Please model this.
Amino acid sequence: MDLQSINQALLVSEQLSFRAAAAVLGTAQSAVSQRVRALEDELGVSLFERHSGGVRTTRAGRRFLSLARLALAELDYAVQSAGNAGRGSEGSLRIGIFSSMATMFIGPLSGQTRTCFS
Model:
């Protein structure tokens, strides 16, 4: 099961049309239809009732697509969170130093000009 097929099925459910979904994606209607059909075959259920005026989601389709939308949102959050952590914009930094050395380094680091020499 690939994410592209799930994304295309979600788009079909939003557009209620394979033709409209294909237009948004800039691809052939047959390609979208084949991907969604393969997804349905893999799931063992029909996601859409097809008719000449478009499509309508089945009960199983509404359930699957609703949960898939939530899962993709969680996946997107995980990707963003990992990126933030990798860039250092998320998380925390702890620095430890010996108290005997603290007066020598903390002052200059905090903007104070007092230094201590023994």
In short: The CA atoms of residues 47 and 63 lie 9 Å apart. The mean pLDDT is 85. The chain is about 65% helix and 5% strand. Helices lie at 3-15, 18-25, 29-43, 59-87, 99-110.
